Amino acid sequence: MSKRTYEDLVEGFEKATNLLDVLVAQNHSCFTLTEYKDNLPNGSFDYGGRQRFIFNSNIARVTNYNQKRTMRDFAEFLGENIFVKKGNLKDFTDAFIEKFFPKYKKTNFNKNKKAKKEILKALIDYYIDLKMFGMTLTVTGLNGQYTGPIQVYDSESLNDVYTNEDDASITTCLVEKKSSGSKRNKEGSGVGKSYKIRYALMSGFSEIRPQLSEFYNLTYRDIKKFDMFNALAPSHCISHSKGNRRTRLYLRFESKTKLFAMEDIGKTMKFIPLVEPRLVSTINDYEIDVTETVKTLNKVKEHITAVYLYEKTDVGNGIKYFVNKKDENGNIEKSETMPFSQILKKYISDMKVVEINPYAEIEEGYYTNNS
User: Fold this and answer.
1) Which listed residue, 48, 122, 239, 254, has the most CB atoms within 10 A of its CB?
2) Residue 242 has what DSSP assignment?
3) pTM of the model
4) For 219-271, how does the pLDDT look when each residue is reduced to its tens digit (9 = 90+)?
5) How far apart are CA 138 and CA 112, in angstroms?
6) In 224-234, which positions are buried (b, 16+ CB within 10 angstroms) versus exposed (e)?
7) Beta-strand runs (E) in the chain
8) What is the 3-state secondary structure (H, E, C) of 138-160?
9) For the segment 332-359, what is each residue's pLDDT rounded down to a tens digit?
């Protein structure tokens, strides 16, 4: 195929009336606030299964691998094709070749570079996680690497996070019962540890970048799926350690050009506890100061086409945000608290806001003829 250019991407975008299957042509910066309650967001083997923290602090950390695993599991639940999962990747690759490219079953890909490229491209086309996040394939004879257009970064808590370190021991009967004379407990019971955090509001950041690679095939349909994954995937984790979490806010800023990319606006938000920090356990126990966030967005709004927003509320009750403003005498005056969607409309009124309904069909709403 001929070399792809940015002009090709932009031309496709500008000519399309329905963008769903058009290649993404702009930079996108994505931000999330995810709530974790009485669970283990991301344990570390190095610390006995305890929660990961930024060194010498109470700031919890969730790795990008954990976040992508959550999205992959949710995508698979929805029926999407997922490549990176439990099992032998060579078996997955061999099965893929046998199903779609039986003529290459006995091919030496080290010698047949054309066939190798064809298989790698087909894998990326077929599996949604490879299309989004890329891959490093180390299967014998078919090794290859592709840096995906969506890069997810480690997330950090806005609040100080506290664990149940002094109350983590649990008893269980789900261990092997040994025969008489064994040193193991004859009743088949045991003692273990179940580490949890009380409450964490994690700030996450990811970027979507168009590419000139011939493997690049990310469309606006895929971006809508990524929006849905960010909005709904956390709340679909049903295991004991991963349950009881949800996305409270998701924002995707669409840039006007290939040159502009936003920084992580999570760094501009301040967590203001309304109770003793160790006792924070619900969204009613804190507020978020977004004064610097509003200033930042007002500075860069000329580079942004639109912000796509999902905000989780419980019967109208969500996280409360506020802005500090100076009155006519120069005194700092706190605004009333409100949802973030209202913050955007009130303090950055000329920024286009598109609300995301993650439950709607992909063929409906933004990026379609029905928008």
Assistant:
1) 254
2) T
3) 0.89
4) 999 999 999 999 999 998 766 556 678 999 999 999 997 788 888 999 999 99
5) 17
6) bbbbbbbbbbb
7) 28-39, 43-44, 50-51, 61-62, 134-137, 144-147, 150-152, 155-157, 169-172, 190-193, 197-208, 245-255, 270-273, 286-289, 304-311, 321-322, 324-326, 332-334, 353-355
8) CCCCCCEEEECCEEECCEEECCC
9) 889 999 999 999 999 999 999 999 999 9
